[in-house]
Design a protein that fits this description.
The chain has about 475 residues and is an alpha+beta fold. Helices cover about 30% and strands about 30% of the residues. The strands form 5 sheets. The protein has a 7-stranded mixed β-sheet, with helices on both faces. Strand 9 (about 135-145) and strand 10 (about 150-155) form a beta hairpin. The chain is elongated and about 130 Å long.
């Protein structure tokens, strides 16, 4: 289904013909009457042209490399195919470039005509920026030969670009479960790191007997090592802080990308990992181990609207293929459990009506953001058990996040915060926001909550090791 609109292209010709005909009759000028007749022909012409066909478009998009490093150039190739049985005489396409990825070469626009089964391609390059970035559906506009009417649609091809280095360090505190893992516990037993020495007890393993003590004093002793166990971790991603500011939106994109990489490191270390959203819409995936669970978690980060860095409800900032305006990057370039469904998903390829809300360039329009967060934190507390710790990824853009952290800590769930710092602070507003964020970090640290202050351009693993080393 598409939206059909009248362009009004020939309305001026009709008015001019009527005016010329009136003048010709009153002034008895045959030449002017002839001009009116020609204009009348142009006015009738659009009515003889068939209405614009509804575009049945399939889009295929490839990004090379699929996971570029920050600052690296990524080549994007888009193929648009006419899967309908009618000619598309005037087809205009604008690809849904993520707003945070500037176009550095080529153009994401194309105007062409397509025969049934025909296809066309457009190629351009973007500069990778740290974080996880979703491509929006391509916007398609089909006009008739006369240009009097047009059909507008979107064609989805889910594509995500994740820019950033993988991590092996994990920002965890010493709350552990019963499964074997890589997190040091306070329980003595079999392990690698020394825990304590005690008197020998019957049945102690021979490999733990302190033979040096026996040789020195003739007394048997046992050495215990710190057992390495797994942790249950809920990654909570705060994406409600865009507020229309590009710097804040970039920090949110880094949060989503960091959640992906930290989840991989936790699963590799045999920890149980869950996923939650902080704000609206709500999303919850209970902590579990294993690669299959990790794949489901990453699919939610890639596709679920809860993890989009900002969105618009009405699609007002979707670019217009008719005039080429609003193309992202053009001005800077040369050329689990959720509601209402139980699993994250994407739109199937093909034409769909309306505009996508999957944008990454600003804040989420929520009527009462604070109440949404309070309800979400309350629901999260109900789903967390006492052994699950929370790793919150947030730009710390408002005091409500600090209140959420305190609420979780008071409920007995240990919280660690990973906060990407702001980028450019070239305005009074961004400088003030940076000062307020620093104050929130100090407030959390004074209460004993570790906060990883992850500055732009800094390696995430190094930032985690630096903070957690100081907190140990």
């Amino acid at each position: 289904m598409t939206d059909r609109t009248d362009t009004g292209r020939w309305r001026g010709v009709v008015a001019l013909s009527l005016f010329a005909g009136t003048v010709g009759l009153l002034a008895q000028r045959p030449a002017v009457l002839l001009l009116a007749a020609v204009g009348a022909g142009y006015a009738v012409y659009p009515r003889l042209v068939p209405s614009p066909p509804e575009p049945e478009i399939a889009v295929e998009r490839t990004v090379t490399p699929a996971s570029p490093d920050p600052g690296e150039r990524a080549e994007v190739s888009v193929t648009v195919r006419n899967e309908g049985d009618r000619w598309l005489p005037d087809l205009r396409v604008v690809d849904g470039v993520p707003a945070l990825l500037p176009v550095v070469d080529g153009t994401p626009r194309r105007a062409t005509a397509l025969a049934p089964g025909g296809e066309t391609s457009l190629e351009y390059a973007v500069e990778a920026r740290e974080g996880k970035h979703r491509f929006r559906p391509a916007t398609v506009l089909s006009r008739d030969l006369a240009g009097t009417a047009e059909q507008r649609a979107t064609a989805a091809e889910p594509t995500v670009v994740d820019c950033g280095a993988s991590v092996s360090a994990t920002a965890l505190r010493n709350l552990t479960g019963e499964r074997a893992g890589e997190l040091r516990s306070d329980v003595g037993g079999s392990g690698l790191e020394f825990h304590r020495a005690r008197e020998y007890r019957q049945g102690d393993p021979m490999r733990q007997v302190d033979w040096r003590r026996f040789a020195r004093s003739g007394e048997l002793g046992t050495i215990e090592y710190a057992e390495e166990r797994s942790a249950s971790v809920a990654l909570c991603v705060d994406v409600g802080a865009g507020g229309g500011d590009r710097s804040a939106a970039a920090a949110v994109a880094r949060c989503v990308g960091a959640a992906d990489r930290i989840a991989g490191a936790l699963v590799d270390a045999n920890h149980e990992v869950g996923l939650a959203s902080h704000g609206s819409p709500w999303y919850w995936l209970p902590p579990k181990p294993g690669s299959a669970h990790l794949a489901q978690l990453r699919r939610a980060l890639d596709t679920h609207p809860a993890f989009v860095p900002g969105s618009t409800a009405d699609g007002s900032d979707v670019p217009d293929p008719a005039d080429g305006s609003g193309v992202p990057g053009a001005e800077t370039s040369a050329g689990g459990i959720q509601s209402p469904r139980a699993d994250a998903g994407t739109s199937a390829p093909g034409a769909t009506s309306g505009a996508s809300a999957a944008l990454s360039d600003g804040g989420r329009p929520v009527e009462d953001e604070s109440s949404d967060r309070e309800r979400g934190i309350g629901t999260l507390r109900e789903r967390l058990d006492s052994t699950t710790q929370v790793l919150l990824l947030s730009p710390l853009a408002d005091d409500g996040v600090v209140d959420s952290v305190r609420t979780l800590e008071a409920a007995g769930n240990l919280v660690t915060v990973v906060s990407p710092g702001p980028g450019e602070t070239d305005s009074v507003g961004t400088r003030l926001a940076a000062v307020e964020r620093d104050a929130r970090i100090r407030t959390l640290r004074r209460t004993g909550i570790p906060v990883v202050d992850w500055e732009p351009g800094e390696n995430l693993e190094s930032a985690i090791e630096l903070t957690m080393g100081r907190s140990a």
